[in-house]
Amino acid sequence: MEKPSTSTSSPTSESSTYSIHDPPGYIKPSLQDMLLTDVNADELLTIAKILRVDYLGPAAFPCSFPQSGLIHGNNKRLMVSLSCRREGKNSKAINIIFLIDTGSPNTFLSDKAMEALVGKADCYMSGPMAVMIHTKKVIVCYLSPHDKHFSDVNVLGMDFLSDNMLSLFINYGQKSFELTMI
């Protein structure tokens, strides 16, 4: 006679997507997605030229706000270059181009950005990384999921904006904006 299972886990994939400790409505970073077909790794290089920065190149750190960005393309993407470095004394600062998404609760970094922050090519980052973005305040950044529409794009989410008390002031006529401290 077969013994009944005493496992409390569900055989469905849903058990791996949510925890009893998650608040209602919580979406794990690995499950988040956005329809982003107009910005990719090559487009980030084009945007870097417009912003006159070296994408993933050396940057001064720390920096201050306000920080200017541009409204890019037909879909009016908010793009900004911010100086970033890993938490720790010996980490180097680099310029990272971010797409600001106020609909994303989290901040994401592409493989290339994480590799540049770590200082090694082809490094495998499976978990989140503590990153100082533009200031010495640490933000948890997640790897842009490989199976989503923004796998090679860096996304600045609401966690960064709210933790740094930042507002967006948009100048549609100039196709620009500023991230400003409240």
Q: In words, what does this structure look like?
A:
This protein is α+β, with helices and mostly antiparallel strands and 182 residues long. The chain has a single domain (39-169), classed as Cathepsin D, subunit A, domain 1, CATH 2.40.70. Helices cover 14% and strands 28% of the residues. The protein is built from three helices and nine strands, in the order αββββαβββαββ. The chain has helices at 41-51, 111-118, 158-163, and strands spanning 67-72, 77-86, 94-100, 107-109, 129-133, 138-143, 155-156, 166-171, 176-181. Strands 1, 2, 3, 4, 5, 6, 7, 8 and 9 form a nine-stranded mixed β-sheet that branches. A hairpin with a 4-residue loop joins strand 8 (166-171) and strand 9. The radius of gyration is 18 Å and the shape is globular. Residues 2-16 have low confidence and may be disordered.
The helix/strand order is HEEEEHEEEHEE
Stretches where pLDDT falls below 50 for ≥5 residues? Answer: 2-16
Report on the biggest sheet.
9 strands, mixed
Structural class: alpha+beta
Total strand segments? 9
Structural domain count: 1
**Annotated CATH topology:** Cathepsin D, subunit A, domain 1
Query: Can you count the helices?
Result: 3
Shape: globular
* CATH architecture classification name: Beta Barrel
CATH class call: Mainly Beta
